[in-house]
Specification:
Layout: E1 21-23, H1 38-41, E2 46-48, E3 50-54, E4 62-70, E5 75-83, E6 102-108, E7 123-128, E8 133-136, E9 142-144, E10 148-155, E11 158-165, E12 188-197, E13 206-209, E14 229-233
Parallel strand pairs: 1-14
Antiparallel strand pairs: 2-4, 3-13, 4-5, 5-11, 6-7, 6-12, 7-8, 8-9, 10-11, 12-13, 12-14
This protein binds calcium ion (4 copies).
Length: 234
């Protein structure tokens, strides 16, 4: 039996993106874990409040917020995270790094969306407490990618993370010399941020992100760039 499926407009990829997050351009940002630059002061906070994994939590266990800026070479992130217990129980940074407390950055250089689990269509950078940046390569191997310059300052249970992210496109090849893309006005980028919170459990207790994910399986950011938010550079 032959089944013919006709493809009408509804089958086509919708290329027109809309965004309600216009990211301001920064004059000068120093990646020192202190968000005291005037550009940060004039940028609004956005919440990290979507539970992607785990049980319910309270604001002492976790709360988080972030803001973005951009420069010619870097996408800047400032994040404030409240976490009652900071742990790094896997000494090998490539071993179950998602089960240690870490800040996770999802970035899709061209806001294409789509699957990126084992490709560089988009990135899922895990930033560890001890300063490492890890993602999965196209060969499924966990690797350090020094694409995010970041500094964390923790006072008590409050941490400030300040990041400068170099954006690499989907042509990135391990072992080659890869140049990050230059940023410019009106550029669209797929972006989300999340925090893996563990407070001494065998596995992470919560995973809280910045975007709403439909359906029961909300831990899709590391696979599907379609759950990222599209942001536009002013
Ligand atoms: Ca700073
Ligand atoms: Ca916690
Ligand atoms: Ca892409
Ligand atoms: Ca924790």
């Amino acid at each position: 039996m032959i089944i013919i499926i006709s493809c009408s407009y509804s089958c086509k990829e919708e290329n027109v993106k809309s965004t309600n997050y216009i990211v301001q351009k920064a004059n000068s940002i120093q990646i020192d874990g202190i968000g005291n630059e005037n550009d940060w002061n004039t940028t609004d906070w956005r919440p990290i409040d979507q539970k992607w994994l785990g049980d319910d939590y309270d604001s002492l266990d976790f709360s988080g917020r972030y803001k973005l800026l951009w420069g010619d070479d870097l996408l800047y992130v400032l994040a404030e995270i409240e976490d009652d217990t900071l742990i790094d129980i896997h000494p090998n940074g490539l071993d179950k790094y998602w089960d240690d407390d870490c800040l996770e950055i999802f970035v899709d250089e061209d806001a294409s969306g789509g699957n990126h689990q084992y490709s560089h269509n988009a990135w899922a950078y895990h930033l560890s407490l001890d300063g490492k940046c890890v993602d999965i390569g196209p060969d499924t191997i966990f690797r350090y990618y020094p694409h995010v310059d970041f500094k964390r300052i923790t006072k008590g249970t409050s941490s400030t993370w300040e990041l400068g992210i170099s954006l690499y496109n989907d042509q990135y090849k391990e072992g080659n010399t890869n140049a990050p893309v230059k940023l410019n006005s009106n550029k669209l980028i797929g972006f989300a941020i999340a925090y893996c919170d563990n407070d001494h459990s065998p596995e992470r207790e919560n995973f809280i992100g910045s975007t709403y994910v439909e359906g029961d399986d909300k831990n899709r950011g590391w696979i599907d760039a379609g759950i990222f938010e599209t942001v536009e550079l002013e």
